[in-house]
Amino acid sequence: MRSSSDITRRLTQLALSCVVIAGALSMSCSALPAESQSATTSQGSECAVAGTGISVQDTQAATALRETVERGPLYLSAAKSGVASCQVTHEPDEVTVEYEFRDGGWLRVAHQPKLEYTDQEVRFATPLGGDPVAVLTGAEQAAFPPQGCGIDWRQEETQPADDDASARETIYRGDVCNCQGRVRRDSAGRVMGLLLRSAC
User: Fold this and answer.
1) ∠ CA 183-185-186 to the nearest 5 degrees?
2) Is the residue at 5 inside a domain?
């Protein structure tokens, strides 16, 4: 006669198997091609999904990335006007989430799990009113809780932006995971973009 612990273990294994099978069936029974699928973000907006051969694990990783992004300071600083569109792109080694906001701003987050590389960049349609370093510090701590990745916000260097000679970027660097934060200003000195990048 089986013990109650054996029966409990078998029932737990059966329940987990059912969850995995149900998830696989729901993915395989989708009538839409991968290029036209969509998923609801945690903020209630739809994200179009692009890519081929998307696995259950890919979908779960993208969902987790979106949820993390949408709780983060960069998203919250830019999304006040609401989301106009969202797209998740799956490549073999990278997941990218891109948002366009109703006021014309945008946010792009690229994540490469194997390289532990993440690039988060936001551009504002109207200048950021608050302290850009406070927003970036919050993003750093959210990405590397609770202390961040050692970015020295008192040491900075400034250089012209790569894609616009009239814009300038102030760069702050960290000593963990090649972290860096950037504040992008236009020719009038207004904050028009923020970037947080890391590669462990």
Assistant:
1) 160
2) no
